[in-house]
């Protein structure tokens, strides 16, 4: 599978570009895939750790890596854009769970991973949209009950909004400009 032959959306290209420039097409794409999948697995475990403690965090990370390995053991370094959003999807789902439970720190990860997944494989857009709506509803419900937490959630939510603007502005501009 040639990683450069598909047009997945701008966010994947932005992340892939420095790797390809530094290491060439094949090696750069492979290093990107390994690094990206590893980072997503570790961040998924970290969010599980934040939400439910060390056993859950380790369990989430190991399950994430193990399930991906069972499905496609050779795909940790997959450079095909059809397989690349699988671990970011897991990160998104755990971030949505954390956001529903009121963890504001999960929002930038939810927005970043969800944006990557949708811009890389638009088939996941309905899942991302429904889980995002559920995360917003759950998060609003939690912060309405706990009015003292306003300071704790403002910065992460503003960071998530800025990230959303940064990764979706090029796509919106492309639609308006007709490129």
Count of DSSP strands: 0
Strand content: under 5%
Largest sheet: none
- Main structural class: mainly alpha
What is the typical, i.e. mean, pLDDT?
Answer: 83
Number of helices: 7
Order of helices and strands: HHHHHHH
- Low-confidence regions: 2-6
What general form does the structure show? globular
Q: State the helicity in percent bands.
A: over 70%
End-to-end gap: 26 Å
Using only C-alpha atoms, the radius of gyration works out to 17 Å
Q: What attributes characterize this protein structure?
A:
single chain, 179 residues, mainly alpha, 7 helices, globular, disordered N terminus
General description of the model:
78% of the residues lie in helices and 0% in strands. With 179 residues, it is an all-alpha fold. The radius of gyration is 17 Å and the shape is globular. 40% of the residues are buried.
Which secondary structure elements does this structure contain, and how are they paired or packed?
Layout (H helix, E strand, L loop, with lengths): L9 H14 L1 H28 L1 H18 L14 H15 L5 H15 L4 H21 L4 H28 L2
Q: What is this entry, summarized?
A:
Helix 2 (about 25-50) runs antiparallel to helix 3 (about 55-70), helix 2 packs parallel to helix 4 and helix 4 packs parallel to helix 6. With about 180 residues, the protein is mostly helical. The chain is about 80% helix and about 0% strand.
């Amino acid at each position: 599978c040639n990683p450069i032959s598909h047009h997945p959306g701008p966010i994947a290209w932005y992340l892939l570009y420095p790797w390809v420039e530094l290491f060439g097409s094949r090696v750069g794409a492979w290093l990107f895939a390994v690094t990206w999948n590893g980072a997503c697995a570790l961040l998924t475990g970290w969010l599980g750790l934040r939400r439910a403690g060390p056993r859950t965090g380790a369990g989430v990370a190991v399950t994430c890596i193990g399930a991906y390995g069972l499905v496609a053991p050779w795909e940790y370094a997959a450079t095909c854009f059809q397989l690349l959003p699988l671990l970011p999807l897991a990160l998104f789902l755990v971030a949505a769970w954390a956001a529903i439970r009121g963890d504001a720190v999960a929002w930038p990860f939810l927005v970043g991973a969800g944006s990557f997944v949708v811009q890389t494989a638009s088939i996941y857009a309905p899942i991302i949209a429904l889980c995002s709506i559920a995360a917003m509803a759950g998060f609003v419900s939690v912060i309405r009950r706990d009015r003292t937490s306003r300071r704790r959630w403002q910065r992460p939510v503003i960071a998530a909004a800025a990230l959303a603007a940064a990764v979706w502005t090029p796509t919106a501009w492309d639609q308006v400009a007709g490129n």
